[in-house]
Specification:
Strand order of the largest sheet: 2-1-3
Largest sheet: 3 strands, parallel
Number of helices: 2
Shape: globular
Radius of gyration: 12 Å
Oligomer: single chain
Low-confidence stretches: none
Distance between the termini: 22 Å
Mean pLDDT: 76
């Protein structure tokens, strides 16, 4: 699942699809994706402050949690 349906999310979707995986989008806007009740696998938001705010909505004890320092 990719949270964010903008340009960065679509770029991530191309990478995920090229690896042979299906893609589901989640977004704050219900017209652009499903409501996200579980943590997304990728946060497809380019703005680091917005990405950090979205990441803060989900539990911190998830396995394989990687946050880019930017």
């Amino acid at each position: 699942m990719i949270y964010g349906h903008g340009g960065h999310g679509k770029d991530l979707a191309e990478v995920v699809r090229s690896c042979g995986f299906d893609v589901v989008f989640a977004d704050d806007n219900p017209d652009r994706g499903v409501h996200c009740t579980v943590p997304p696998v990728l946060i497809g938001v380019a703005d680091p402050q917005v990405r950090a705010e979205i990441d803060g909505r989900f539990p911190v004890n998830l396995p394989n949690r990687w946050i880019h320092p930017s």
